[in-house]
Design a protein that fits this description.
Shape: globular
Number of strands: 14
Mean pLDDT: 94
Structural class: alpha/beta
Radius of gyration: 19 Å
Strand content: 15-25%
Largest sheet: 7 strands, parallel
Strand order of the largest sheet: 3-2-1-4-5-6-11
Helix content: 25-40%
């Protein structure tokens, strides 16, 4: 028996944004992670509980208590470089959590947020029917988690998302998403080196939260795998130029460089996603995913103000 609440496993950028959207709609939301997020869940009407999601018994106790009808999995190490250096640990963490929740809540609507790194980057537009070929250890870990979940939970969905961006404060205490990192540095007058040979389809954080919430609410069967990418295919260098214009920084602060010279060397050349079906589903057909220029305009004011010191 499942209840009406939503459990979000992971209090990072996507987990917090989804929790805030659901709580604002009056839903009962519980966020779990090893450590609380910088913004307390109680501040936006949700609750937070400490959980080591790789501990099956701890997960069992939590699910027995909450009995959620909907679960969002945004767990596991997401630093691609770290995963490349620790491939076995990354795979174990991602798979263990997916396996546990599939086994303990097989009839819940589970949305696993996955990645474009499950592809090798040979295509400019990877769709749901494109054959997977993980580009790196992170992609292999996420793909294994997808397979573990979908094998046991018939109502589960793996939602693969492109590069997600949104506002984060300069002191967030971790590597910021690309947009936030660029905006903060550009406003301090710092130079940005961005790859001109690494393409992506960036997707605004608010759009990811909206799509995730819609899939949780879907009263009809869903495909096991869905893609969510933005409408624009751009290089990181091109995107950094868009960000510079939006925040009023000099364009010459952005220097295009080869991907191999940057921390993105292990990413696929084409980290791009296109969906063949998302716009046809009743739950998501009305959602408009915004492009990088509109996203930059929406976010620019959040980065206004004196530079961080």
């Amino acid at each position: 028996m499942t209840g009406d609440g939503t459990l979000i496993v992971g209090s990072g950028l996507i987990g917090t944004a989804t929790a805030r959207r659901l709580a604002a709609a009056g839903e009962h939301v519980t966020v779990v992670s090893r450590r609380p997020a910088a913004l307390p869940a109680e501040a936006y009407g949700a609750r937070w509980c400490a959980l080591d999601a790789t501990d099956p018994e701890a997960c069992r106790r939590l699910l027995d208590d909450l009995r959620p009808g909907r679960i969002v999995l945004v767990h596991g190490p997401s630093d691609v470089t770290w995963c490349e250096d620790h491939p076995d640990e990354a795979r174990a963490a991602h798979v263990a959590v997916a396996d546990t929740f599939a086994a303990l809540a097989p009839h819940a609507r589970i949305v696993l947020v996955s990645t474009d790194n499950v592809f090798g980057g040979d295509s400019a537009h990877h769709t749901e029917s494109t054959a997977v070929s993980p580009a790196n250890a992170y992609g292999r870990a996420k793909l294994a988690a997808e397979e573990a979940l979908l094998a046991e939970a018939p109502r589960a969905v793996a939602l693969r998302v492109s590069l997600v961006y949104g506002h984060e404060p300069a002191d967030a205490g971790k590597w910021l998403n690309f947009f936030a990192a660029c905006a903060h540095r550009l406003l301090r007058g710092e130079r940005i080196e961005a790859p001109d040979d690494h393409w992506t389809t960036p997707v605004l954080l608010d759009d990811v939260a909206e799509v995730t919430a819609a899939l949780l609410d879907a009263g009809h069967p869903l495909p096991p795998v869905l893609h969510l990418g933005g409408p624009d295919r751009v290089t990181r260098a091109e995107w950094a130029g868009v960000i510079a214009r939006a925040v009023g920084a000099p364009a010459d602060l952005v220097t295009p460089v080869p991907r191999a010279r940057t921390r993105y060397a292990s990413r696929p050349v084409n980290a791009c996603l296109t969906s063949e079906v998302l716009a046809t589903l009743p739950a998501t057909e009305a959602i408009r995913v915004r492009g990088v220029c509109e996203g930059a305009r929406l976010l620019a004011s959040a980065f206004a103000g004196p530079p961080a010191v």
